Amino acid sequence: MRAVIQRVRRARVSVEGRSVGEIGPGLLVLAGVSDGDTSEDRDWLARKIVQMRIFDDDDGVMNRSVREAGGDILAVSQFTLFASTRKGNRPSYSAAARPEVARPAFDALVAELAHLLGRPVPTGVFGAMMQIELVNDGPVTILVDSRARE
User: Fold this and answer.
1) Residue 79 annotated to the active site
2) b/e 81-118 (16+ beta carbons within 10 angstroms → b)
3) pLDDT, tens only, 99-129
4) CB-based contacts of 100: which residues, under 8 Å, 6+ apart?
5) Annotated active-site residue in 6, 55, 78, 106
């Protein structure tokens, strides 16, 4: 699993002009699922997202997690995180899991994020064309891959 984690002041995801998920300060997480991702990948990624210390403490040092900072998480499924640009100019998405595999895996990630955060995690609509509005805070944007674990 891969995720782009963005610290935001606010974020909203809309489908067909209607807001379907919205948060104030917290994290916008764009998450992608690949074939072969396991529950271990999911659990590792969820822990990493919730425990990552990228919010300022009282001294202005990034030393608090989203949970410690009282922030929220907005999660959006994004298969394009597994794009390959090796050949030509049109990306290949063959490494991304098919929807019948990706959807339950993404739903399980959201459930684990909510469990670790201690409150519901709003999402976009799986498979829909979505518009995302955000105010990036910092900016702080981090790419995490459960297979690389860097």
Assistant:
1) yes
2) bbeeeeeeeeeeeeebbeeeebeebbeebbebbbebbe
3) 999 999 999 999 999 999 999 999 999 999 9
4) none
5) 78
